[in-house]
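Handout, section 3.2

Students often ask what a structure token actually looks like in practice. Rather than define it abstractly, here is a full record for Peptidase M1 membrane alanine aminopeptidase domain-containing protein. The first block is the sequence as you would receive it.
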Amino acid sequence: MNLKSRILVPSLAALFFTAAKAQEAPKYEYTEAFKPFFYPQTGTETRSASGQPGHVYWQNAVNYNLDISLNDAQDELTGTAEIIYTNNSPDNLGFLWLQLDQNLFKKDSRGNAIVPLSGSRNGAHGEDFDGGYRIKSVKLDGKDVRYTVSDTRMQIDLPKELKSRGGVAKIKIEYSFKSPKYGSDRMGIQDTKNGKIFTIAQWYPRMCVYDDVLGWNTMPYLGASEFYLEYGDITANITVPASHYVVASGELLNAKEVYTKEQNNRWEQARYSDKTVMIRPESEIGKTQAAGTKTWKFRINQARDFAWASSAAFILDAARINLPGGKKSLAISAYPAESAGEKAWGRSTEYTKAAIEHYSAKWYGYTYPAATNVAGNEGGMEYPGIVFCHMDSKGEELWGVTDHEFGHNWFPMIVGSNERLFAWMDEGFNTFINELSTEAFNKGEYYRKKNIAQAGGYIMNDNFEPIMVGPDNMKENSIGVLAYFKPGMGLQILRETILGPEKFDKAFRTYIDRWAFKHPTPWDFFHTMENVSGEELNWFWRGWFMNKWKIDQAVKNVKYVNGDFKSGAQITVENLGQLPMPTTVQVKFKDGTTQIVKLPVEVWKRNREWTFKVDSAKEIEQVKLDPESAIPDTNSKNNVWTWDTAQTKPVEKINIKDFTGTFGSKQVPVKITFAEKNNQLYAQATGQPEFPLEYTGDNTFTFEQAQISLKFSQDRKTITFSQGGRDFTFTKE
């Protein structure tokens, strides 16, 4: 039918020496939505056009041996970082770049300079202290080396180039810094009745990523955007006051040296328990006031970062995590007495265990020996194997933040995207998987299905930037929507409405598996989803992520065929917004029954409106788009048509056979033959394909695609043919 219509319109226009009247162009342009060449480049040797790493994909590696000491009275940390950096790239490197994120807290930092007078989540909340690194020495292979500090970056000039494809540089940096009380909502110091809780992150110089996309990734740390890091093995020796207990990324190596015999027995019990086991109860806080210091030793492999927490105030509990293939991990919680109780952090380990087990079974197995939830002053922050959540969180709020932060162990801890540029690739993906895990947790204890339709007017507000704008390049108030909510909703729509759960889940798991411990770009994700699902999705990427297109679909018209409901109905829907979507139409009949019609997105590839027939012998009460509220349509008012509110009066019933026959004209050398097929009138002009006609009442038929109107006389013997403002008279032969 579409093919015939495409040919018919210009043919009739030529026959009758006229063209359709000019109309105002609609918002929706299908040639723009579905235009080809969405991808900026084809496949390369490092990144395949299929979305997987190319046959010579490479990334550099870095191992860290870290020693750090905490002076809890001065809130100061002093340490040494030994860095073993391997250059796997095809390029010789004349210099190296490192990240010095603590320099955000210097008074003259760029991040501090952009904090508005109204305040910000980022930075140190106005705390007046001497922050940032104090670099004591930088050595390369045991010798002093020239370096330059530029805001939150350090450049080391190499005396000779670091060889490509395997060259190794050994760097040693001695440093110290004073911890902020509130470290940009990512680290800090929380006072409690039993002592301070130190949550420590961004605490050692870290290598910048050198990749095949941008070379050195040296964007400064401004507070809003997060991190882009290389993978490797990390050991950490953490020296703290002897009364402190330390939890950290990875595995504790010297448990017998730092825990009592009874506490170690409890740890062993927890490793085999699906119920929470108390390791250090509140009753033991303050019982032993040991003098001096104690060193805690940890190790984590194939990780991109390391964080830790230390306090004399910690209650500790733990339970076993069951992973696919019989593997095990350990869920751990560390929190002060103020946060205890079954309505608060007493369920933290239960939440942690459930989240890790769900994500492992559904997407990709958890890779670390422990998952630790720490109560601090952060709203919520994630690191490999450990997260910081606010000590005042409880109930549904604590589940939500725990689930979200541990979801980050998949994005970006396992799938190492560039958070500096593409916050949505970790926050948005994580927001999406959180919805599924919350539905699964404890038979939906905290789950409430979201009404996506109601969100359309909000998330598609013109005041928001596009999703693909980086977090440092959007208003701070936009970050929650553009990094979390909108991309998370986009993936939900892609799963539930566009691809279906089976296709989506297979493609999404493939993406995670392909890019585990690697560095994907948005294009790698887009390519993978299309190649695995087998569906063209450039229209969705273009509208939802690259632009801020709106969705607005509408019911334009509902008519009974020939005015008789027993002959079925013709329903016309429109795509008014710039972003097309598959269209679900619910037809509700007056007897209370319903019928669902699903239109694929392809109907919008060359149409702005679409008419389809509903085969039924029942009277229609209502026609509604998106009955499950799965699409964020910006105008819900035009999504519903009801018989009572329809502006058109009912079309009288007719007998189609009364209008059949052949008609000729003295004005043009054309004959038109009318025939009945399946109770619908078709017309065919001389030498042209036949086309269907729609009865609009008063002996008039139309063919809207060619803007043709045919009005029969009362005796059905003459026709007034109208097109493009001109009329022609035809007489029955």
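Discussion prompt for tutorial groups: Residues 1-26 have pLDDT under 50 and may be disordered. How would you have guessed this from the sequence alone?
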